[in-house]
Design goal:
This is Tetratricopeptide repeat protein. By secondary structure, the chain is mainly alpha-helical. The chain is 63% helix and 0% strand. Among the domains are: 89 residues, no CATH class; 200 residues, no CATH class.
Length: 576
């Protein structure tokens, strides 16, 4: 579905005027283009629909031939065809096209027209087709729908109400309607419809819809009971186990959650929903990055999962180096930085340095980067990313830059982009943009000459030299090396050794002088796959990360058991 055929954005009234003029001249195709554009500007404006009706009367086949579906069809033409299909006695087909338009442009009120909201439509299409349409809307909508996008789905909710009024005992209709109501914030209505659906036709899916609705209503205990009944209906649907485990974990019952997920893994150790949930909960339990690395490996080895999962991104979000840059190290004391010997310290342990030591570290880049290199870098550089493999994938946009350009970006960072992000960085912390440039350029180096074997590759040599140089570049280069270890298991031992060496050097220097970067290096080490236990323990100590010991876990569990006055959900069913 295409946005449009040109760059114009005329008001709907002007588009209608042009459409009527073309219609009067017999130029039907020209008129159809303007009507489609008017629909995009004002999809519910009565005058637009009046003109569309005139066009349909003038053209053959009810006007449908004027709005054919092609490989790339303008969204306004798709909506126009939907309305003409309904007028021609095919409302179900028209609804399918409106839902496709809603998925394309969620905030537009494509369906807010009388023929969709009329009670008569529910009788014409029947409960099965109504449920199918509502299910398509749910599949196209996020969960929950952002508040700004909810008005555009009001017509579909009205369709659900009308259909339930006619078919109050149709379990599938009630369940899908509950899912839609929940997504748009009508939680009470969602619970009522789902309860009615389970009562009318008990089923696994009905209990799942009820569980979701109750969970959104804050009725966790009842939600878990409904999901448990869903397991009773179908013990082999491991996605429900994952839902139960996730719900338990979200409410502080992590050990119970792990029990459910381990039971699911025992039934099928490769089912994607349970694998994703298991690694997320294990990381939540002990904070060990190996769980996330194993999850990343699973994602890489199983590209055809049943649906998209966000567990890895959820675990990495907001965490230093896993999902975002650490803040810049604090500036050194002026009295100390006045010592030229210290400010030029090549060990990288004397605190932040200026761009001249950075430029000397990348001396081969004597000239600034090309305009194209600077443009690409500005487009992708950001202080946050979903997780290291995603950052690696994004940096492929720099893959075709030559080494001189990449080093030039480090020596001569481009100006902050004229975007919302650039304005925030310029106004609040300009140094953060420089760190963004360094991090993303080093990630770009990972894509340089990837045909070369890692051990003797240019990309490894350059990144190692940068990692052993000045502090401002060392962290960025180390993060790139760590990212390489995330995406390529064969380099993990090498990268872990390099990171351990760098952290050890910084720790040793801390005995003689302040090391502002030690905290960031510690978090970087904790994000490193395959780090040895001693270095990991050192990193946790420097970062102030506590390890949950078995006794503490037991104490936490006992505290939960003390609160046994409330009813408890039975545990997972025993293995067969």
């Amino acid at each position: 579905m295409a946005e449009g055929t040109d760059g114009r954005a005329l008001p709907a009234t002007e588009e209608l005027a042009l459409a009527r003029r073309a219609l009067d001249a017999g130029e039907l195709a020209h008129a159809a283009n303007h009507v489609a554009s008017a629909l995009v500007r004002a999809p519910t404006l009565p005058e637009v629909h009046e003109t569309l009706a005139r066009l349909a009367a003038a053209g053959g086949n009810g006007g449908l031939d004027l709005f054919p579906l092609q490989h790339h069809t303008f969204v306004g033409a798709v909506v126009a065809r939907a309305h003409l299909l309904a007028a021609a006695g095919h409302p179900a087909e028209g609804l399918d096209l409106l839902v496709a338009a809603t998925a394309h442009t969620p905030r537009a009120d494509w369906a807010g027209v009388p023929w969709v909201t009329s009670p008569e439509l529910a009788e014409r299409i029947g409960p099965d087709r109504a449920a199918q349409v509502i299910m398509q809307v749910c599949a196209a909508a996020p969960d929950p729908v952002p508040a700004a996008d909810r008005p555009a789905l009001a017509a579909y909710l009205t369709l659900a109400r009308n259909a339930i009024t006619v078919h109050p005992e149709h379990g599938l209709l009630l369940g899908t309607a509950s899912a839609l109501a929940r997504r748009v914030g009508e939680v009470t209505l969602a619970v009522r419809w789902a309860t009615q659906g389970v009562r009318a036709a008990p089923s696994k899916l009905g209990e799942v819809w009820l569980g979701y609705a109750l969970r959104s209503a804050g009725r966790t205990r009842e939600a878990l009971a409904a999901l448990r009944r869903a397991v009773d209906h179908d013990p082999d649907d491991l996605a429900v186990y994952a839902d139960i485990a996730g719900t338990l974990a979200d409410h502080g019952r992590l050990e119970e959650a792990l029990g459910w997920i381990e039971h699911a893994l025992a039934r099928n150790p490769s089912f994607d929903c349970t694998v994703h949930t298991a690694h997320r909960l294990r990381f939540q339990r002990d904070g060990d990055v190996r769980h996330l690395v194993e999850l990343a490996d699973f994602i890489r080895d199983h590209p055809d999962d049943s649906h998209e999962h966000g567990d890895l991104a959820e675990c990495c979000r907001g965490r230093p180096w896993l999902g975002q840059l650490t803040p810049p190290a604090p500036a050194p004391d002026p009295a100390r930085s006045a010592d030229p010997a210290r400010s030029a310290d090549p060990s990288g342990t004397a605190g932040p340095v200026g761009l001249d030591p950075v430029a000397s570290a990348v001396r081969p880049a004597a000239s600034p980067p090309s305009a194209e290199a600077a443009r690409r870098l500005r487009e992708l550089a950001h202080p946050a990313w979903p997780h290291p493999p995603a950052a690696y994938d994004t940096a492929v946009a720099l893959a075709t830059l030559d080494l001189t350009d990449l080093l030039g970006l480090l020596a001569h960072p481009p100006e902050t982009p004229q975007t919302a992000l650039g304005r925030v960085l310029s106004g609040q912390d300009p140094s953060l943009w420089i760190r963004c440039v360094q991090v993303w350029t080093c990630l770009g180096l990972l894509h340089h000459r990837t045909d070369e074997p890692w051990a003797d590759s240019t990309r490894r040599r350059v990144l190692v030299e940068l990692a052993e140089g000045v502090e401002e570049l060392a962290e960025a280069a180390l993060f790139a090396l760590v990212t390489a270890a995330w995406v390529d298991p064969s380099v993990r031992a090498d990268v872990a050794r390099l990171v351990a060496g760098r952290l050890s050097a910084a720790t040793g220097a801390a005995r003689e002088r302040p090391t502002p970067a030690a905290l960031s290096l510690a978090h970087l080490a904790l994000a490193t796959p395959g780090l040895d236990k001693d270095t990991a323990a050192l990193a946790r100590a420097l970062a102030g990360v506590r390890t949950v010991r078995p006794r503490e876990r037991l104490r936490t569990l006992l505290r939960r058991l003390v609160r046994a006055l409330r009813p408890r959900l039975p545990g997972p069913p025993p293995p067969p």
